Amino acid sequence: MTDETSDPRTDGGERVRESRRGAKRTDGGTAAAGHETDHHHGLPAPSSIKRWLVTTNHKDVGILYTVTALFFLVFGGVLALLMRVQLWTPGATILEPLQYNQAVSAHGLIMIFWFLSPFAFGFANYVVPLQIGAKDLAFPRLNALSYWLYLFSGILFGVSFFQGGTFAGGWTMYAPLNLPVYTPNIGASTAVLALLLFVVSVTVSSVNFLTTMHRMRAEGLTLRRMPLFTWTILLTTWMMLFAFAALLAALMILSADRLIGTQYFAATGHAGSLLWAHLFWFFGHPEVYIVFFPALGVMAECFQTFTGKRIVGRKWFIAAMVLVALQSFLVWMHHMFLTSINLEIKTLFMATTIGISLPFDLMVFALVYTMLKGRVRFTTPFLFSFGALVLFILGGITGVFLGAVVLDYEFRGTYWVVAHFHYVMVGGITALVGGLYYWYPKMTGKMYDKFLGKLHFAMYFVGFNLLYFPMFVAWETPRRDFVYPEIYTTWHQLSTVGAFLLGASFLVMFYNLWVSLSTGEDASDNPWQFSTTTEWAIPSPPPLENFPGKPSFSSGSLEFLPDGSDAGDIEPAGPGGREPAATDGGEATTDGGEAATDGSETDADDGEDDDDGKLVTDGGRVMTDGGQPMTDDEQVVADDGTAGAADANAGVADEKATDGGTVTVYDEHAADDEEHGEDHASIWPFRIGLTSFLFLVGLSGLRQGSFPEGLEGGAYLGLTVVAGVGLLWALVGMGREEFHGLEGPFGESWPFTGINNTKLGVWIFLASDVVLFGAFVGSYAFIRVAEGWQNNWHHLIPADHVVLPGLINTYLLLTSSFTVVLALVACEKRSKWGLIGSLATTLVLGIAFLINKAMEWQHLFHVHSEAFPNGWNIGTNVASSTFYLTTGLHALHVIAGLVITLYLIARAWNGAYLDDDQPVELFGLYWHFVDIVWLFLFPLFYIL
Amino acid sequence: MSHLRLYTGIFAALAAFATAQVFVEQAGGLPYWTAFWVIIALSLVKAVLVAWYFQHLKWEPRSVSATIFTGLLAAIALTAAAAYSIL
């Protein structure tokens, strides 16, 4: 790659050319640290479209997430405005009734799934690795894959509008409205598949973030010291891992109901609709916190930065969040108080629901006290964060009403609910918008226009309350309906005016951010006077590999060490460094340079970088836990202008000057550039995303297990087959690609020391799969309980369904597990033929398992008895549906395992795995898990 | 070699437990719900044996076991509470 296609920065900022050792000078502190060329990782320049298709760098992916999420904000926002226009007068028909239903449903789905969480994860992608001192996420290609699956899932949802109309049954997709009999459009199926693809993206992302945050924190950055934003993302991803697995199960079952004719949600009696509600809300309530926690993290960061005060009761704040994350899985049935669940369980869930408000009280008081004890700078990010707190308090209080069974009887299905959850959800968005302003200078190297930022807030806050508060007054308006009592017309008209004001406020934001990108003032590395986290200790925007050396907090403050060293190797440098940064809300003071030394005396009372650039780029310090301001003696300077740790390899140091002084940055790649540079580019995640999208477009044409006749059906079938082959090709391509990710050892890895990233990633994925299969088994158990566990259920199953095929398959799988163990033993003994023989035996046993299953199914399809004259097919009854779908999902896992086995055999044939048996071990983890699942399916579906 | 013997013994035990599950059901001597819990308990024992030894959980950090157990707990909570809600 030539210099023409490479740029040291991820985005924005002025490009700087220089030789490795040359000095470089920029105007605004936006210089990249070292490593000017990126020829070894194949990443094109940011101005190239190709860059954005192939990048795996977390900062690029963060920007992609942010921009894409904002697009979906506009998409969902326009739908909301259409609804508000419709509601100008009762019963207006600007939209046809079904179109209105589609707008309501799509608005909810887009905002919650395709805007809110991804918007937060734009920041998470960009900021979390910086805050924990990691160069990137643990699995950069999987991170890119998460993004592309997210984008293409959103496009797939957009396609659904053109397939006879999208899903129109509300964002909760309640059964039986979610079945083709009520929502017959192909577009409705496509919407379900789009959500399913989105959940796959979320799962991949969760595994990646959890592995990264647990395994790749810099030395000295214990969990206790971790910044609050990263804490919220950690808890969010844990919740995502388990909650979205339940939604994945629900969507897979729904897809099966819609596409191949299973009978789960069409079950007679209350089982079908209640089952959906259980699965959906088991996901849905944690989802509230999944959406809100990152916003809470932004609020915590902004409150600390703009009050100059460490958050009050920090450890209790964290403990409260952990408690909420756990409790969030124990409150879901408060969404079902109006269903036929029994009173005992309603009472229990009312108690847990009221209980979950208590830790939130603690968090709210912590934020309020932080504000009271500090000195507030009313910057745009703070205004949005403070506004979010006010809105959340109102949203939280009104939610407690809904947690009480008796009150919920009255409020359910009204605009009270609509107003409440918008105050919570859009309250969260408010904080995230604050986050956008907060990190915009870091992400772009430019400062936004402060006046326009505050104008945005004023319009936003007024518009928000004008939009949502009247809904509390007009609460008796039926939800999801455009016909309402005329007495509420004025309130609804106020709401509509508020909606347009809120929408217009975003136009101000887009204008501001867009124009500032090209004409805004250059932002210094740290434009906020009292920011305390690591991202502010590096250039804006940061260089490709983030840090001028290896970050360490071992001494109690941030220092950058040469790669390969540890904290004990380097003597701390003296005072006079430049970046104020602590890993979390420290009570930072500035120090040195031209900066003022006390917040109350600075020339930027609002805490924002002043236009003259006098403040901030110099001075300050780096703290680990922010508990106390550091003394100068404690301060360790990474890129001190004169001397310091980073200068340990002076021969490879770059000197660059910013407005704030000269900075010397250790070039971590200068010495051994070619030896261990990580890759940052791969096209395969994009290809997997694209082929997944096309495959699901094709699959959406399925109905009752077959494609429609004629040209349309042929097109859907053809697309399914071609894209399916393409998807397999892309998956294999990514598996075969040589890609050098980050390698340890890393710093802090508690509680997962002693296990490497890849293995931990597999285990975390399996934990998610436990919930997936658990939800399938739970669905089976629930439906069977509803039908009558023993007698009634057995009447749904033919006598030909006997134990023997299941027992044979149990023996086959157990034996195949044993042969995988033997394969690993062969690796240890360096026995090539032992390895190949063991894997080949596993393959044969797996195939035998599938053949046995196929024979069994074939027999059951064609049974003839009085009770089952047309065989026992997938759609015969709910018992057959649960049997075929659950064991079928397991069979798909077996097939995936056999594909991997084939790959392993081919590589073992060429001598692989004798020196490094980890791939065999990782495959074993998966294969044994598949075995374990069968150990439960066998008794449930064959014996009991 | 000692591990190989251990693995072989576990494999034999797994096969025996699977057979025992069928035997418990076919023999018919136990009340349904007693047999139900015996059969489920045997499945649990088999699952733990596979996870502990074949998947090497025994030799991994306990936090890995805790992660899997948390997932299991979530699934059981969903199943048990949902089923109870309609009793």
How would you describe this protein?
- The complex is a heterodimer of chains A (944) and B (87).
- Helix content of chain A is 58%, strand content 3%.
- Chain A has 944 residues and is mainly alpha-helical.
- Among the domains of chain A are: 55-266 and 685-708 and 726-736, Cytochrome c oxidase-like, subunit I domain (Cytochrome C Oxidase, Chain A, Up-down Bundle); 285-444 and 448-520, Cytochrome C Oxidase, Chain A; 776-944, Four Helix Bundle (Hemerythrin (Met), subunit A) (Up-down Bundle), CATH 1.20.120.
- A three-stranded mixed beta sheet of chain A has the order 1-6-7, with no helix packed on it. In chain A, strands 2-3 form a two-stranded antiparallel ribbon.
- Chain A starts with 23 loop residues before the first strand and ends with a helix.
- With 87 residues, chain B is mostly helical.
- Chain B folds into two domains: 1-55; 61-87.
- Helix content of chain B is 84%, strand content 0%.
- Chain B has helices at 2-27, 32-54, 62-85.
- In chain B, α1 runs antiparallel to α2.
- At the A-B interface, α6, α7, α17, α19 and α22 of A face α1, α2 and α3 of B.
User: In angstroms, what separates the terminal alpha carbons of chain B?
Assistant: 52 Å
Task: Tell me the radius of gyration of chain A.
Answer: 29 Å
Percentage of residues in strands of chain B = under 5%
Q: Supply the number of helical segments of chain A.
A: 22
- As laid out across the biggest beta sheet of chain A, the strand order is 1-6-7
The CATH level-2 architecture of one domain in chain A is identified as Up-down Bundle
What is the number of strand segments of chain B? 0
> Residue share in helices of chain B?
over 70%
Fourth-tier CATH superfamily name of one domain in chain A:
Cytochrome c oxidase-like, subunit I domain
Name the helicity range of chain A. Answer: 55-70%
Strand content of chain A: under 5%
Largest protein-protein interface: A-B, 68 and 48 residues
Using only CA atoms, what is the Rg of chain B? 16 Å
Average pLDDT across residues of chain A? 86
Helix/strand structural class of chain B: mainly alpha
SSE topology string of chain A: EHHHHHHHHHHHHHHEEEEEEHHHHHHHH
